Amino acid sequence: MFHNVRIPKENLLNRTGDITAEGTYTSAYKDLKQRLGASLGALSSGRVMIIAMSVVNLKLAVSIAIRFSATRHQFGPTDEKEIPVLEYQMQQWRLIPYLAAVYALDYFSKSLFMNFIEFHIGLIMKDKSPRQIELGREIHALSTSGKPLSSWLAQQGAQECREACGGHGYLTMNRLGDIRNDNDPNCTYEGDNNVLLQQTSNYLLSWLTARGQDSGPMTSPLGSLDYLEGYDHILRQKFTVADVHDCMDSSVPLTAYKWLVCYLLQESFQKLRDQEQSGCTEFEAKNNSQVYYCHSLAIAFIEHTVLQRYHEYVHSAETPAALQPVLQRLCSLYGLWSLHKHMAVLYQGGFVSGEKAGRLVQDAILELCSELKDDAVALVDVIAPPDFILNSPIGRADGELYKNLWSSVLQGSKVLERPSWWAEFCANKPVVGRLRSRM
Ligand SMILES: Cc1cc2nc3c(=O)[nH]c(=O)nc-3n(C[C@H](O)[C@H](O)[C@H](O)COP(=O)(O)OP(=O)(O)OC[C@H]3O[C@@H](n4cnc5c(N)ncnc54)[C@H](O)[C@@H]3O)c2cc1C
């Protein structure tokens, strides 16, 4: 349709580059990296929004499943007494880590949005300072990994929440199917998650390359690379926690994540170099270094960033003292639960050794789930939208599970009428034995 169509030059989107009347490309950014940084940062808005959308989906799913679990009674220690399914350790372990993830990701999403606003103001004001350029690159790296993390967590969380509601999770009016479906394309649009993560790992690898060069270390205005200054020292660290209560502090997963990012960065860099030395092209080397290396690196990096931001927030003087204990538990649970998925690498690289360490992390996760269980409904009440927006009979705030289900069923269209085919069915009702004479 656009073949031989001329688009007037005034329509050019030319914030970071332009074309003269003679057809020569010009840009205020002389340095190629700076030019890329300015352009990439501007493209981050969609992903920053998708992070927020995924968090909303996870909030909805978790709110429905936890309210349902607190009111649904099933089995019990005695035949006479049934207990809410949230009392079961399995149900707690399935749902409460997602509640913790919602809190941590919500904070990350909102703080990243504010970072993006700051960057955007710089664009509008035509700020060409080195800080503005680095900010664009950093926000790009955070949004290209933040979108995969939040959309995948919402995807897995919505499915877990649906199953956690048993058969009621599949009733359309309870909305869990719609929430899951609505969230799914967040994993694909504005860049497929697996492809996007390569942008973040490239950013981290360029930090390691820049370290050894005269141009000096790469800076991150938002501080997400700051700890890498201690790269060599961090790589020599070990997991030294001795008991479960010490393990329940969010500084434990934070320290482990710093080691994990440094280790995966070192391993990814080495893997790329090995590939190149064995005769692969740069393209092949990149492709063959994604699985277990660059891909895991980008995920560990963003999980660390989310945890670091939330850790600082819950420990800050601005957070009311009365709320800190419960928020710190959420922070620790999010950190340990996410870290637990990397246990094999933590052992493989020698940060963790012995049976006890792995068991401590598991025990700490279970203990935190149990301690948060009694606060779970109140924590959901904080994040859930009003009932008419949540729009799920099993997820209403009053906890009147069966009354709400029943009244929703009764309010369905034509629910108290005979079906349209009833009269026809009665008129032509098959008579038992009528076909026998024909046989
Ligand atoms: C519901 C929906 C709405 C959309 N809306 C819009 C819109 O409004 N505007 C718009 O412009 N676009 C839109 N899109 C398109 C969307 O942005 C693209 O589909 C998305 O970026 C993925 O690109 P693709 O479809 O070309 O996938 P492909 O690049 O063809 O990817 C296919 C598969 O190959 C894998 N793959 C590709 N490259 C690599 C690689 N280098 N390494 C490893 N694996 C790789 C991917 O992981 C993926 O699994 C929308 C998509 C959806 C699903």
Topology (elements, then pairings):
Blueprint: E1 18-19, E2 25-26, H1 32-42, H2 45-71, E3 73-74, E4 83-84, H3 89-124, H4 130-164, H5 176-183, H6 193-211, H7 231-235, H8 244-247, H9 251-277, H10 282-287, H11 290-315, H12 324-340, H13 343-348, H14 355-373, H15 376-383, H16 387-390, H17 401-410, H18 422-427
Antiparallel strand pairs: 1-2, 3-4
Bound molecules: flavin-adenine dinucleotide.
Residues 185, 188-192, 194-195 line the site of flavin-adenine dinucleotide.
Protein name: Acyl-Coenzyme A oxidase
Organism: Sphaerodactylus townsendi
In brief:
With 439 residues, this protein is mostly helical. The chain is 62% helix and 2% strand.
Word description of this protein:
- The chain has 439 residues and is an all-alpha fold.
- It has a single domain (33-383), classed as Butyryl-CoA Dehydrogenase, subunit A, domain 3 (Up-down Bundle), CATH 1.20.140.
- It is built from 18 helices and four strands.
- It has helices at 32-42, 45-71, 89-124, 130-164, 176-183, 193-211, 231-235, 244-247, 251-277, 282-287, 290-315, 324-340, 343-348, 355-373, 376-383, 387-390, 401-410, 422-427, and strands spanning 18-19, 25-26, 73-74, 83-84.
- It has a two-stranded antiparallel sheet.
- Helix 3 crosses helix 11 and helix 4 (130-164) runs antiparallel to helix 5.
- The model has no long low-confidence stretch (mean pLDDT 94).
- The protein binds flavin-adenine dinucleotide (FAD).
